[in-house]
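Fill in residues.
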């Protein structure tokens, strides 16, 4: 590893910032990490993998992240990466306060000539309207005293193949020198293509387009699932059939809801930004409404199936398998399971919850306990542990009904055992 003379400061050490800090360190940069979460900083100082990504276990012993708690300690850094959250509030309005605050912090503590890269997901125009002014207010001339770029983060938690070190990236800047500097930086840490964009707005729009594309297609198959359910058509088999076409079709799958920090959030950034330009993203709004409604639809499926067995949801002993938004990760961000739990409790169901990755929200210690204490199962997350449960075990424990919110259990085997099965659109 060749030592790089430049110092990098990562602001925001979460799912995006922490892996980036590790990656910069193993590629020879002197790395500093800034975050306001003291517990997180303490864990990093102990050398812990705070995002629990397996590929980082091998890299961490080779990395050194200098944790800083005082903003003034970042003044000697040459490159700043802003990787703070960009959530939406309860009304789905974008909250840019973290990005603005981080920009102000860097602007007050950087030296002239620094490169500032925003990795946080933002809507087109944020760098012009909020980030740039923070530096100009401190007397810096963009393109001369400071170079500002945007490289939208691309993280896929739990993916065994794609991670921050090998996913292609795009980057945009306000000026040619800033673009050249930022492309050179990413080429030094990422073993994949770095595509320069013509404008910083184009770079901002890329991530929004990527996740809106997925959201729309997931909403489409979720709507098909509802329709096909009424026509006694298995939507999963139909998608598999359509997937045999070698061009112009990309499979997306229905489920009990859409989670994660990106897909349920990013479309709102574009929806709200477009309103400022007197444009209404009707398609995006409808897609969001469909996907937001899937937890309720799934609970209603469970309620209907129980009713068909002469039972009520009120007082029913329901085993909920999985709480995280994605299989094999302990990530609760925007997880539909949280809404499902809220709805089931509201209807008076007795819940037995187990997620091996989120013990703090589990009231059962293992699958066996859930099966022992339940009469019906709702599978909300497709963890490998749940997929490996022998179908006979459900029968042995007297489980009469399974609602498969992720369509990942063996429908035919369960039905053959006399267990009532209901998936999303199957």
């Amino acid at each position: 590893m060749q030592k790089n003379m430049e110092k990098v400061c990562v602001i925001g050490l979460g799912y995006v910032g922490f892996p980036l800090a590790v990656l910069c360190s193993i590629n020879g940069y002197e790395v500093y990490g800034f975050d306001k979460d003291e517990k997180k900083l303490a864990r990093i100082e102990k050398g812990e993998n705070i995002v629990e990504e397996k590929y980082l276990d091998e890299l961490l012993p080779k990395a050194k992240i200098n944790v800083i708690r005082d903003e003034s300690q970042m003044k000697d850094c040459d490159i700043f990466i802003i990787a703070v959250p960009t959530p939406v509030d309860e009304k789905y309005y974008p909250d840019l306060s973290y990005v603005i605050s981080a920009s102000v912090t860097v602007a007050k503590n950087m030296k002239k000539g620094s490169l500032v890269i925003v990795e946080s997901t933002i809507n087109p125009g944020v760098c012009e309207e909020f980030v740039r002014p923070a530096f100009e207010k401190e007397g810096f001339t963009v393109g001369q005293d400071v170079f500002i770029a945007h490289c939208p983060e691309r993280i896929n938690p739990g993916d065994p193949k794609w991670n921050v070190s090998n996913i292609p990236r795009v980057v945009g800047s306000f000026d040619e020198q800033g673009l050249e500097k930022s492309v050179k930086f990413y080429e030094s840490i990422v073993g994949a293509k770095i595509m320069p964009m013509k404008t910083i707005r184009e770079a901002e729009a890329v991530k929004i387009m990527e996740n809106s594309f997925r959201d729309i297609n997931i909403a489409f198959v979720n709507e098909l699932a509802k329709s096909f359910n009424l026509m006694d058509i298995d939507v999963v088999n139909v998608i598999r059939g359509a997937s045999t076409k070698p061009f112009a079709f990309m499979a997306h799958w229905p489920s009990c809801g859409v989670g994660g920090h990106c897909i349920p959030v990013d479309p709102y950034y574009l929806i709200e930004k477009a309103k400022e330009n007197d444009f209404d993203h009707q398609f995006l709004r409808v897609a969001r409404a469909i996907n937001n409604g899937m937890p309720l639809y799934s609970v209603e499926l469970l309620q209907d199936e129980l009713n068909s067995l002469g039972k009520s949801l009120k007082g029913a002993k329901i085993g909920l398998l999985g709480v995280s938004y994605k299989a094999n990760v302990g990530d609760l961000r925007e997880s539909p399971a949280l809404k499902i739990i809220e709805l089931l409790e509201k209807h008076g169901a007795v819940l037995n919850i187990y997620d091996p990755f989120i013990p703090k929200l589990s009231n059962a210690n293992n699958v066996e306990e859930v099966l022992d204490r339940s009469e019906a199962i709702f599978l909300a997350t497709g963890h490998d542990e749940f997929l490996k449960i022998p179908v006979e075990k459900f029968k042995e424990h007297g489980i009469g009904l399974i609602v498969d919110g992720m369509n990942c259990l063996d429908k035919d085997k369960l039905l053959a055992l006399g267990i009532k099965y209901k998936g999303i659109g199957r």
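Residues 305 and 401 are 8 Å apart (CA to CA).
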